[in-house]
Each structure stands twice: as structure tokens, then as C-alpha cells.
Amino acid sequence: MTIKKRLNLDGCSSDEALILATGRGDLQAFAEVVRRHEQWAWRVAHRFLGDDQEAADMVQEAFLRILTAAGRYRSTAKFRTYFHRVITHLCMDRAKKKQPLFMEVIPEFPDIGAGAVESIMKEETALLVRGALDSLSSGQRMAVVLRYYEGLPYKEIALSLDTTPKAVERLLSRARQHLKSSLGKGNNLL
Description:
By secondary structure, the chain is an all-alpha fold. Helix content is about 70%, strand content about 0%. The longest helix is centred in the first third of the chain and has 23 residues, at about 25-50.
């Protein structure tokens, strides 16, 4: 039997209905919530933290928290907004605790062959952008990720960051100024 039929939702299996069913012990409903939101959550966490494994850890932690709190969930707001807030706060908390990585051995780099120059230039550009993003405050960085990478409107970003749309506008403005100075005015990345 499909989730839609079991929940008697016939075409309207909302996230809210699924999480309410999860709160009643329906783990298949929770599996559907995970399926719907895991890619988005990983993209946000990865773009914010810059590391595959850390992003996966944050997504797993977010879903564990949602599963644990499912019995207390009340559909007073969209589940999506609630989930955005959970992943946003987890990522920002992780960024506060993040320590620099020091390596004892410097890795060897492969020889540059024909066509590899373009690949190296793309990697260097990605590293420059990653470094510029990492130099932003966590609030600015999350606002940039949610707005420019995920396309969320100011209102949803504000809900995720527990602030106002006007404050989001200011965060993004300061972030753009910082990124322009970090990446250089002549750079075509912005």
C-alpha cells in the first residue's frame, strides 16, 4: 500500500501530514519526508560548510532531530520552513565550532597535461569563491547560500535565520560588499 493511500491523502500528501504521521510512529511517512528534503538539505549544508562529510553529518543530525521531535510537531507553519530553520541553525552552530585542518604531509599534485589547465583554473576559481564565502560571518554566508544558491525569498530566509526580511537584505548587502572586495572588482565571478 502506498503512503498516499495509507494516509488517505489522495494526491495531497503534504509534508505536514507526513510529519504528523511520523509523530504517530509511521516510519514510512518519515522516509518520504527524508526522500523529499535530503538533497536540498545536503546542498545547503555543503555550500555553507564546504565539506561533503560535514554536510552529510549535518543533514543526518537534522533528520534525527526532526524524527525525535515529530511527536511534538504542530502544523502551525509549513514543515519546509521548520526544516529550513533546523538545518540553518545546525550549520551555523557547526561553523562556530569548526577548527582549521592542519596536515602533516603536503599532498602531491599530478602533472599538468593538455586540457588540465582549464580544469585547474576552474578548481582555483572554486577555491577562491569558497575562501571568500568562508570569510563571511555565518549569518551572511547562510543568507548568501539560501538566496543565491537556493533561490529562497527574503521572507523564508528571515524565518530560517530568526530575523526580519529587512535584516536579511542588510546581511546580503554586506556580504556582497565583502565578496566584491575579497574577489576583486575586476573579477567576473560576481
